[in-house]
Amino acid sequence: MRGAETAETAETAPGGAAGGTVPGLTALLTTAMAFSMMQLFLIGALGPRLVDRLDVSETLLGLTTTVGFGTAAVLSPAGGRIVDRVGPRRALVALLGVSAGALALIGAAPGPALLLVAVALGGLPQALANPATNKAILAAVPAPRRGAVTGTKQSGVQLGAFAAGLPLAAVAGVIGWRGAVWVAAGASLLAAVWAWRALPADAPPRSAAAPLAPSRAGGAVRWLAAFSLFLGAGIASVNTYLALFGAQRLGMGPAVAGALVAVLGVAGIAGRVGWSRAATPGRAPWLPGLLAGGAVAAALLLAAALRAEPLVWVAAVAIGVFAVSGNAVSMVLVMQRAAPGRAGRDSALVAAGFFAGFALGPPLFGLLAERGRYGQGWVLVAVEFAVAAAVALVWALRERRTRAGAPA
């Protein structure tokens, strides 16, 4: 990645890149994505402990997700504009620093009120994550490699789920849940220092009045945002309640229930990398519908686990491979269509739909979970994924007709 002056020109070169790369850029972007949502994965993985020890009800557990992602959805459009103006280095350092602060507040929370404040603060890193990392990729990575790098960095979100569900949940068993959250806060702060030292300085902030190229993504952004809304609603419900489902209905201990989140995370890493590599320009429009269709089957397997417990592990893997991968493919699609200087803004609009779904899904599921109706909750998730699949397939058909009607 060259100096800051190349950040914008790299986006203007069709299929080009800025030239040299920052050593470890992919690892840094993957880490940033992991910490952008770490606080919510930790709340999900530590859900059984929070319900028992912090006077958090099942409905309030879902509300934490609503507050965090609701904040992210509101801030995402502004976050995209900010990243387009100030550059990826400043945005990534801010993302990791604020993540550290949000995690530290969760660790210090004496009750639900401060917990909600902390997850609201955690909405800012989520709003910055996709615009900042996508812009860094467009500035530094040659076009043929962008799909693979995008899939890898998007898998960072699931790396965060794995870290919350296995090592940090294990640490919580030794030093307590607060200690585990503080360990995560310290790691995020170290990552902020890494970003500051590793990335070249950004260009001076661009004036708000500076003109932007019109979006080449056109209607694709709106369709992908709608797809992401329903996909996010289903994924958020799984992330928030999977461990609690294992503990309350399947008789698992807290550590084993947390391992379900880790399994989902590992499967999501593999799925995001694999499907993003497969998202070539001709094939990519069909993948979101295919992945959402697979997610419907995965959600129904969760409902079936009430009668056959081992199916919950198969379902966790399938959610990672299909549902979680859909978000990575949608980001590849946005980057394939991003106009010069608009990568942050277009990415943020799609992310806003995803975050809005994350805000809406868990409270609806929580109303059922509090009454012990997990089977109905997983059916609701299947319906949300089915709507996402329908939206994606309709858009893909429109894209095919548009291409067929285009002049040679």
UniProtKB/TrEMBL annotation:
* Highest taxon above the source species: Bacteria
Claim: Transmembrane is one of the keywords in the record: yes
Against Gene3D superfamilies, the record matches this protein to: MFS general substrate transporter like domains
Keyword field contains Transmembrane helix = yes
Membrane-topology annotation of the record: Multi-pass membrane protein
Q: Give the matching InterPro entries.
A: MFS, MFS_dom, MFS_Efflux_Transporters, MFS_trans_sf
Q: Residues in domain Major facilitator superfamily (MFS) profile?
A: 25-401
Main subcellular location: membrane
- Keywords for this entry? Cell membrane, Membrane, Transmembrane, Transmembrane helix
Transmembrane regions listed in the UniProt entry: 25-47, 59-79, 91-121, 181-199, 220-244, 256-275, 287-306, 312-335, 347-365, 377-397
Q: Where in the cell is it found?
A: Cell membrane
Record-given protein name: MFS transporter
Lineage of source species? Bacteria, Bacillati, Actinomycetota, Actinomycetes, Kitasatosporales
